[in-house]
Amino acid sequence: MERDQKPLTHDWREKLFIIIFQADTAKGKAFDVVILWLIVLSVLAVIVESVPDIEEKYSNGLKLLEWGFTLVFTVEYFLRILCVRNKWRYISSALGIIDLLTILPTYLGLLFAGMQYFLVIRALRLLRIFRILKLGRYVGESHLLIKALQASRFKITVFLSTVLTLVVIIGTLMYVIEGADSGFTSIPVGMYWAIVTLTTVGFGDITPVTFAGRTLAAVVMILGYGIIAVPTGIVTVELAHQSKKQRQELVCTGCGAGGHDGDAGFCKYCGEKLV
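Above: the chain's sequence. Below: its structure in token form.
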């Protein structure tokens, strides 16, 4: 997204653009590394501030740090706007919105208590590490995963509908079997227990005491292990299918031919390695 930005023609703004938006230069990379470290430190400061003992002792220092980080990020945000030609394109882009959201909580904290904890959203800015370390080529793998999830959405919807139906039935049965004396005061409470048990979380805040209730609980626990494997299998199959499909769509860099086999490593026409 940042690659699409274009600098203004003024000399100093163009130099600023190169430093802020381009990580290929030494200054640009240094700028991004400094910003990333500031992001890490600011997120750590917010996390530490939530610890009562630390907040009580170092409240003033932490607040000064918070404002210091916010002022730096505010200046950076406006510099980004200043040095691009299409300002609205940057402001409305995903990274532009994230940059804005990372500075707003501190200012909103003057009006609303507790807003400073939303500053942890700054962690999203660490996504820029993909650009700095030139990991953009791996983004294609995430697209493959997204396609697999999209292709399996109907199967997963049917699966989740079945699970929800089981939860209602099991929750109702447990409510009837155990009753309020065992903590199952309503069907929703029974459904809550069914979800916790079916997912093998097992908080243990509500437990059956009767023989029938324990028998049903044992069945639900065993059923839970089988249910966990179902969505994993669905997505794995679709992932393999999408990977094979992507391979078939590859175009040979040597002769330009397509339509290769799903497991092909080399072009069947010229022998060039498929990449």
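The chain has a mean pLDDT of 81.
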